[in-house]
């Protein structure tokens, strides 16, 4: 580690326990785990039974967190270097705001509840790190990444390492346990089979599962199986042959909790959720054409560590943004968008964004958000041409795009809403619901997108390339590759009003 290295802590409050990683991040973007500890806490059992964190579980969590805080003092880690996240159990808890407030007051930890799609993003980063270049098929063919937690299942489909779709499904080991605890056999339970069939059908609409060649399972139950029958791929990853995994599931699927504890050397909390997890993995594995199961020895905690280092490595950040674009494009294809037009408008948006940095003051992530909005701005045409900006807003605000937070999706959905038609007004609840800073960002992005969209009004790509020139209070758009631009001129006259209101410049087409 270099002299700029510093220790950080990542603390995760999950459905079955609270786990902590202490690591050191260096100035060159590298990181190394220094210590890790965990404590079982049955938070998910409470929440998925009653809908909220009980007083007893709250007190137990606070006790564990106070102990972890004292532990971190020994590493001299505090404040902004402690990153505390919570996953599906707290996402589902009605009293999660109260829980978060109590944690802050009692421990000083600023707890962030991670959305399901954000879990997917962090897990992707962790899996990518674990596999490295030791599994070329992951980067060349179709892949599925699957993680089953106590309250949700995170699934990603990839083509040549690029995200096709990402889902966070309300199907976890604790939920399955509760639904079928009276069943005599896991393998024959109707509830489990119907959930798995529905999941497979959903995934099959996005990728032919029989074409999946790499089946990646990231979860504690999969790691138990890997330790029993797997082989080491590298220091962070195991592989299990397809038939070996299936035989292992057949061998253990009727184990009692006590047998799981004794024969697999796992604790009671792990034993109670082990069987439903591996049965889900087996079912989906058999739908794929994968010859082996890949089990990375990582979690979203490692994913968050990598995320903390991404700000240092711009190359990794750009690779991550490319995954966001791939996910957005696949969403557009699902709704049969005009891909050539959307990509062309996106290119115009980026040219304008880069030329107007002094005027808009937005950052690199804002540039990515604008590009996603441009790639999907006409997606509502799938429903109806009339008012398609509002249909597009609905589709995007209810979609899952890999790597984007819910707040970012709402921002992008509003940009799409105002890429044409009326300007925003205080009666628009979705617009007013944005934070003040996001409303300003949205107006800037929508103003740019309206102009860019006008430049390809006929979807014929008459204008091949643009450059911007400032003259006093006017911005002139110079064009290349154009023929008759009368349609584009009309479009610009119709849509330039927001740009002039937001930036104060009159904009004309040369």
Can you describe what's shown?
- The protein contains 22 helices and 15 strands.
- The longest helix is centred in the middle third of the chain and has 21 residues, at 314-334.
- Helix content is 52%, strand content 19%.
- The protein has helices at residues 43-50, 55-74, 88-92, 96-107, 116-131, 136-140, 173-179, 190-204, 220-229, 242-252, 257-264, 268-287, 300-310, 314-334, 339-355, 357-360, 364-375, 388-397, 406-417, 429-432, 436-454, 486-503; strands at residues 6-13, 17-25, 31-40, 82-86, 111-113, 142-148, 153-159, 162-169, 212-217, 231-234, 237-241, 292-296, 465-471, 474-480, 506-509.
- The mean pLDDT is 89.
- Helix 5 (116-131) crosses helix 13 (300-310), helix 14 (314-334) packs parallel to helix 17 (364-375) and helix 17 crosses helix 19 (406-417).
- A hairpin with a 2-residue loop joins strand 10 and strand 11 (237-241).
- The strands form three sheets. The protein has a seven-stranded mixed sheet, with helices on both faces. A five-stranded mixed sheet has the order 3-2-1-4-5, sandwiched between helices.
- The chain is an alpha/beta fold and 510 residues long.
């Amino acid at each position: 580690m270099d002299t700029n290295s510093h220790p950080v802590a990542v603390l995760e409050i999950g459905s079955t326990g609270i786990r902590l990683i202490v690591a050191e991040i260096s100035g060159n973007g590298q990181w190394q785990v220094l210590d890790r500890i965990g404590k079982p806490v049955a938070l998910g059992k409470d929440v998925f039974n009653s809908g909220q964190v009980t007083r007893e579980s709250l007190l137990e969590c606070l006790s564990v967190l106070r102990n972890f805080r004292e532990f971190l003092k020994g590493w001299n880690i505090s404040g902004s270097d402690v990153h505390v996240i919570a996953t599906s159990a707290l996402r589902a808890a009605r009293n999660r705001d109260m829980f978060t407030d109590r944690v802050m007051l009692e421990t000083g930890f600023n707890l962030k509840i991670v959305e399901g799609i954000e879990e997917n993003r962090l897990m992707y980063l962790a899996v990518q790190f674990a596999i490295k270049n030791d599994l070329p098929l992951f980067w060349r063919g179709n892949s599925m990444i699957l993680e089953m937690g106590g309250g949700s299942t995170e699934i990603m489909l990839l083509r040549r390492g690029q995200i096709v779709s990402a889902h966070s499904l309300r199907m976890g080991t604790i939920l399955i346990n509760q639904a079928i605890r009276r069943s005599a056999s896991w393998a024959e339970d109707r509830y489990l089979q119907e959930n798995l069939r529905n999941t497979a059908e959903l995934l099959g609409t996005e990728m032919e599962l029989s074409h999946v060649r790499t089946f990646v399972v990231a979860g504690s139950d999969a790691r138990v199986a890997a330790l029993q029958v797997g082989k080491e791929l590298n220091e962070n990853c195991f592989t299990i042959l397809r038939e070996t995994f299936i035989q292992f599931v057949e061998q253990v699927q009727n184990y009692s909790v006590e047998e799981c504890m004794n024969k697999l050397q796992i604790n009671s909390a792990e034993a109670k959720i082990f069987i439903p997890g591996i049965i889900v993995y087996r079912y989906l594995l058999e739908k794929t054409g994968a010859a082996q199961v890949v089990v990375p020895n990582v979690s979203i905690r490692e994913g968050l560590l990598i995320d903390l280092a991404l700000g240092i490595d711009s190359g990794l950040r750009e690779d991550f943004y490319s995954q966001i674009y791939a996910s957005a494009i696949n969403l557009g294809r699902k709704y049969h968008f005009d891909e050539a037009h959307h990509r062309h408008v996106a290119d115009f948006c980026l040219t304008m964004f880069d030329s107007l940095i002094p005027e808009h003051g937005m950052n690199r992530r804002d540039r990515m958000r604008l590009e996603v909005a441009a790639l999907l701005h006409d997606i509502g045409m799938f429903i109806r041409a009339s008012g398609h900006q509002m249909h597009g807003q609905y589709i995007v605000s209810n979609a899952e795009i890999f790597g984007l937070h819910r707040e970012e999706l709402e921002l992008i959905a509003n940009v799409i809403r105002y890429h044409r038609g009326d300007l925003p007004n205080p009666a628009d609840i979705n617009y007013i619901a944005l934070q003040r800073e996001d409303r300003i960002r949205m107006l800037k992005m929508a103003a740019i997108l309206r102009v860019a969209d006008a430049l390809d009004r006929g979807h014929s790509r008459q204008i091949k390339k643009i450059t911007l020139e400032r003259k006093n209070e006017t911005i002139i758009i110079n064009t290349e590759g154009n023929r008759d631009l009368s349609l584009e001129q009309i479009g610009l006259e119709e849509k330039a009003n927001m740009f002039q209101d937001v930036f104060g410049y009159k904009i004309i087409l040369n």
